[in-house]
Design a protein that fits this description.
The chain is α/β, with parallel strands linked by helices. It is built from 7 helices and 6 strands, in the order H-H-E-E-E-H-E-H-E-H-E-H-H. The strands form 2 sheets. The chain has a 4-stranded parallel sheet with strand order 4-2-5-6. Strands 1-3 form a two-stranded parallel ribbon. Helix 3 packs across helix 7 and helix 4 packs across helix 5. It starts with 17 loop residues before the first helix and ends with a helix.
């Protein structure tokens, strides 16, 4: 890690290290790039009420300076932190550095395609956890419709945004609802969800995701 970027991770799953996680959590409200986003998260938790938890944006990401947004469907258990009561199983942050295989796939694919994490942010079309303490649930149409205005608020805090990558069918459905309502002026790319289950069931998925991420890198390079 350098003084310029104290959160740069040399390998996946760095947030399994308690010291790394403590440092990251300590920065969610102080790192300038993510402070506005995480101020919003805190307010959203109040608006949603008890029983629904929204993880923090990652201080290692681009935050409000992000030029690309990677959208998945909903937070996983490894992003749930102390505020989630029975679901306290993870970091409390949406991060490619989380200690789970989907995050590891995201980290590895980004590294292979030259996408700088400091210029992007990862988020979900539905920002709150769905499911129980034991099993995550996929968002349905009602959750996707309900979440669209919240995604609009996030997009409004990303003035440099150029590219959105919707990963998985639920994320694509959520982004389609959002685009229909708000017509954002960004490039949209679609690809598979980067989970081990998808990789196991679709042998070409990894290569197809890689191609899409390379296209995202090309679009960002062109500006």
């Amino acid at each position: 890690m350098s003084s310029r970027d104290p959160f740069r991770s040399p390998a996946p799953r760095v947030l399994r290290d308690p010291e790394a996680l403590t440092a990251r959590l300590g920065a969610v409200r102080t790192e300038p790039r993510v402070r506005p986003l995480n101020d919003w998260v805190e307010k959203l938790r109040v608006r949603l009420g008890d029983g629904e938890s929204v993880p923090w944006f990652d201080p290692a990401s681009g935050g409000v300076a992000a030029r690309s947004l990677f959208l998945l469907e909903a937070p996983g258990r490894k992003s749930m932190g102390a505020e989630a009561e029975l679901r306290r199983t993870g970091s409390g942050i949406i991060s490619v550095d989380n200690d789970d295989p989907t995050a590891q796939n995201c980290w590895t694919l980004r590294a292979e395609t030259g996408l700088d994490y400091r210029e992007s942010v990862h988020w979900n079309v539905v920002p709150w956890y769905l499911g129980t303490a034991d099993r995550i649930a996929a968002p349905g149409r009602s959750e996707i419709q309900r979440a669209a205005p919240f995604l609009h608020e996030v997009i409004g805090m990303l003035p440099a945004l150029e590219v959105v990558v919707a990963m998985g069918r639920k994320a694509q459905a959520g982004w389609a609802v959002y685009r229909e309502r708000y017509a954002p002026q960004v490039h949209t790319l679609e690809t598979w969800h980067p989970s081990p289950r998808v990789f196991a069931s679709r042998p070409t998925a990894r290569a197809e995701i890689t191609d899409v991420l390379r296209e995202a890198a090309r679009l960002l390079e062109r500006g």
